[in-house]
Design a protein that fits this description.
By secondary structure, the chain is mainly alpha-helical. It has one domain. It contains one helix and six strands; from the N terminus they run αββββββ. Strands 1-4 form a two-stranded parallel ribbon. A hairpin with an 8-residue loop joins strand 5 and strand 6. The radius of gyration is 27 Å and the shape is rod-shaped.
């Protein structure tokens, strides 16, 4: 008498559906957290850039004995105080490699030494 042994290996449809459902649930939890983390990182980077620009403005004004409220324009005046970086330098719509730009595609506004630099993106401001 021969005994038939079935050796069919594989997953059933129910098992595959459970795995897909678990992966979908994990993705539904992870994606919003990733978006929030990216937004927070962009905000922190922008605020740190604003701090560096503000420090460069203050140092420039101090070394040049500018009166309070004096203009620091053109921004090329700040280049020695920012190292090898340039504020918001773009060419053909793309940022130059050594430029300080807002990661959320904002624009930095620098006017006077007594006014802190600002960003055009809401929520990106020095505290």
């Amino acid at each position: 008498m021969k005994i038939k042994i079935s050796c069919r290996a594989g997953f059933t449809l129910v098992e595959i559906m459970i795995v897909v459902a678990i992966i979908g649930l994990l993705a539904a939890i992870a994606i919003p957290n990733f978006v929030k983390a990216r937004t927070t990182a962009q905000t922190n980077t922008c605020i740190n850039n604003l701090r560096q620009i503000d420090a460069a403005i203050q140092q420039y004004a101090l070394e040049k004995n500018l009166p309070n409220g004096a203009s620091v324009l053109p921004l090329s005046n700040l280049s020695p105080y920012l190292g090898h970086f340039v504020i918001g330098a773009t060419i053909n719509g793309g940022a130059l490699p050594n430029s300080i730009n807002c990661p959320a595609s904002g624009t930095y506004v620098v006017t006077l030494d007594s006014v802190a630099p600002t960003c055009t993106v809401a929520g990106h401001a020095l505290p």
